[in-house]
Design the sequence.
């Protein structure tokens, strides 16, 4: 997915920055086809 070393290295900082802004990351498999989140 990340073919450049710097993008792979930056991923943790990107995720933490999003979490600091109250974003929540979810498993894409938990998204149903109608656009909601499956329980």
Sequence:
């Amino acid at each position: 997915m990340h073919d450049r070393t710097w993008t792979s290295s930056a991923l943790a900082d990107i995720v933490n920055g999003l979490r600091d802004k109250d974003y929540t990351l979810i498993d894409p498999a938990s998204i149903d086809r109608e656009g909601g989140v499956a329980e």
